[in-house]
Amino acid sequence: MPELIKQNVQWFPGHMAKTRRLIKESLNLVDGVVEILDARVPYSSQNPELDGIIKNKPRIILLNKCDVANPTATSMWIKYFESKGAYAIPVDCKTGKGLNKFDEVVKKALAKVIAKNEEKGMTGKPLRLMVVGIPNTGKSSFINRMGKNAKAKVADKAGVTRQNQWFIVGNGIELLDTPGVLWPKFDDPEVGDKLAFIGSVKDEVTDKETIACRLLESLAKTNPSAIEERYKISGVEGLQGWEILEMIGKKRGFLIKGGEIDYERAAVIVADEFRGGKLGRITLELP
């Protein structure tokens, strides 16, 4: 049995405090905000500080990674955001799925800005949008997809973009990329866990085995068949996470000297396969 860490996931590096300040300072440069959320955890991946920072700026929400999220749940989230007066579309920034609707949504969200520009004789003035989101939600992939000449650093890990960058992506739209920013602490420990599950908290600052066990316990309650079908095991309901991880380790033959289970290797596999959608299209929370 692996030694599990009880403390809650918390991570707020100094550069994130700087990012929060940069967002505030840059708001007067943009007409609206594009917020990218992870479709698997739309609630947990939404920074609660943003409402107070951007205030009444028009907002477009992109539910990214919809290809690995439950489509029914994604539809529910779209309706939820629409009921709140927001513009929301499901997308997959890596493949470009859904992004063909982006320009149309921008024009709807910024209709008043466009009308005001026309009144001032500035028809066709570029629309400037700030792209925000917590780490690893796909901001850079979105920008790179939006224009052939747009280039931003991309990596499948949290915290790659560290400074504001402007990109002209065509169709009269300019995007301001900002570093991914989390909030000072996670008041709800479940939120911290979910962000660790999807990789928005750096793996280096979490305990891999603890996170994998928590993920497995969560899935065993809500979607046990996803675990059983992927790892060819049965009877996971009601088990503790470490017991399921042990079953997976045995099934996959992850053994170390003395025939002990290599829990760390099993944990890494579970996290990677969940994030890659190999356990199926799973959404961890509903509106």
SSE topology sketch:
Layout: H1 14-26, E1 32-38, H2 50-54, E2 59-64, H3 71-83, E3 87-90, H4 102-109, H5 111-119, E4 127-132, H6 139-146, E5 165-170, E6 173-177, H7 189-198, H8 208-222, H9 224-231, H10 241-252, H11 263-275
Parallel strand pairs: 1-2, 1-4, 2-3, 4-6
Antiparallel strand pairs: 5-6
InterPro entries: GTP-bd, GTP-bd_ortho_bundle_sf, GTP-bd_ribosome_bgen, GTPase_MTG1, P-loop_NTPase
GO cellular component, one term: cytoplasm
Protein name: Ribosome biogenesis GTPase A
* CATH fold assignment of the largest domain: Rossmann fold
Number of alpha- plus pi-helical segments: 11
Strand content: 5-15%
What does the overall shape look like?
elongated
Low-confidence stretches: none
Judged by helices, strands and strand pairing, the structural class is alpha/beta
Query: Count the strands?
Result: 6
CATH class of the largest domain equals: Alpha Beta
CATH H level, superfamily name of the largest domain: P-loop containing nucleotide triphosphate hydrolases
Give the termini distance in whole angstroms: 35 Å
Binding site for GTP: 64-67, 136-141, 180
Organism: Eubacterium coprostanoligenes
Keywords: Cytoplasm, GTP-binding, Nucleotide-binding
Domain G: 129-183
